[in-house]
């Protein structure tokens, strides 16, 4: 208990409070993430077991780290960072920081602390290089109000990504009569649009080119948060120009995509011709069938009847003979 009282003495408390204040004022990009803030606060709390000299040295290291982070972000991204890049840099830094804490012995080592905060700057620089090389705006067409983090104030701002045109292309489609067609105007940067944007699909029937089209030529089909629609059981009349517009909550057009759908007719089946047999020549005609005379039919019927009677009488005589023999055997017994 005496040792704990000496560690939390008045000079130590003043130094500990000054460290917390320096973190609140000097946040850079990595420290704008609440998870990183808690990670550093826990690390500072561990300084209560160190000497006053170690705490002062630790404060100097962290202050310099914040300056390095801010300088790096200003040089590579103009002092702002998009939330995707911030998440990736923060996640990698936290993983390295936990590995550092688990590998070091008890107490705070100033040299190892310098190494881990410098590694954090390298991580931040690596991810900011993507912004520096590709630019902060991922959209190649359309309008994007991207939510970014100000690395100096840790406040969210909207960064306007300008566009040369809201037209994001034309896509010709061909489908057969009775088939289906999938229209999907999703672009990867649509995920970064702030709020709950909606997709509006309209249709200009009978049109197969975007030239000279006016707003009056389009009919509204559907308004949805889904980027795609499916047209089933297509007919010839459903061909035309389909337009997909992405709008934000202020009805501002963010992107516009066209689909030129051509519905082809199903092939008409060829009628099957009837098989016609060739006619016979006069010499190849078969003679007509002749019927037998009635007298011959009577003779045949009489013969069949007589044979039937003879067979019946023979069977009856044989049956009577068998019965008589059986009766004689019984009488002899």
From TrEMBL:
Please provide the record's keywords in A-Z order.
Membrane, Signal, Transmembrane, Transmembrane helix
Pfam families per UniProt: IZUMO, Izumo-Ig
Q: Which domain of life is it from?
A: Eukaryota
Q: Which InterPro entries match?
A: Ig-like_dom, Ig-like_dom_sf, IZUMO, Izumo-Ig, IZUMO1
Signal peptide residues on this chain, from the entry's feature table: 1-28
**PROSITE patterns reported for this sequence:** IG_LIKE
Which family does the record claim for this protein?
A: Belongs to the Izumo family.
What protein name applies here?
Ig-like domain-containing protein
The organism's taxonomic lineage, starting at the top: Eukaryota, Metazoa, Chordata, Craniata, Vertebrata
């Amino acid at each position: 208990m005496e040792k704990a009282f000496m560690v939390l003495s008045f000079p130590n408390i003043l130094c500990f409070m000054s460290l917390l204040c320096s973190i609140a004022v000097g946040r850079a990009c990595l420290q704008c993430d609440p998870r990183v803030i808690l990670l550093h606060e826990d690390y500072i709390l561990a300084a209560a077991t160190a000497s006053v000299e170690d705490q002062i040295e630790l404060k100097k290291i962290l202050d310099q780290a914040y300056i390095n982070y801010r300088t790096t972000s200003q040089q590579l991204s103009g002092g702002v960072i998009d939330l995707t890049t911030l998440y990736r840099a923060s996640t990698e830094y936290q993983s390295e920081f936990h590995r550092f804490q688990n590998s070091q012995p008890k107490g705070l080592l100033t040299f190892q602390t310098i190494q881990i905060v410098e590694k954090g700057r390298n991580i931040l620089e690596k991810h900011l290089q993507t912004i520096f090389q590709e630019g902060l705006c991922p959209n190649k067409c359309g309008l994007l109000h991207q939510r970014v983090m100000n690395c100096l104030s840790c406040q969210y701002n909207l960064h306007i990504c300008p566009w040369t045109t809201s037209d994001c292309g034309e896509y010709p489609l061909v489908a057969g009569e009775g088939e289906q067609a999938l229209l999907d105007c999703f672009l990867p940067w649509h995920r970064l649009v702030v709020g709950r944007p909606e997709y509006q699909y309209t249709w200009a029937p009978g049109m197969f080119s975007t030239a000279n089209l006016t707003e009056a030529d389009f009919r509204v089909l559907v308004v949805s948060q889904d980027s795609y629609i499916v047209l089933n059981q297509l007919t010839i009349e459903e061909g035309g120009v389909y337009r997909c517009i992405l709008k934000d909550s202020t009805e501002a057009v963010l992107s516009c995509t066209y689909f030129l759908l051509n519905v082809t007719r199903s092939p008409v089946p060829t009628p099957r011709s009837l098989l016609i047999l060739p006619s016979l020549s006069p010499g190849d005609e078969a003679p007509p069938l002749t019927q037998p005379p009635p007298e011959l039919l009577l003779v045949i019927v009489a013969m069949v009847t007589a044979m039937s009677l003879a067979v019946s009488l023979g069977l009856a005589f044989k049956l009577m003979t068998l019965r008589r023999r059986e009766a004689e055997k019984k009488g002899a017994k």
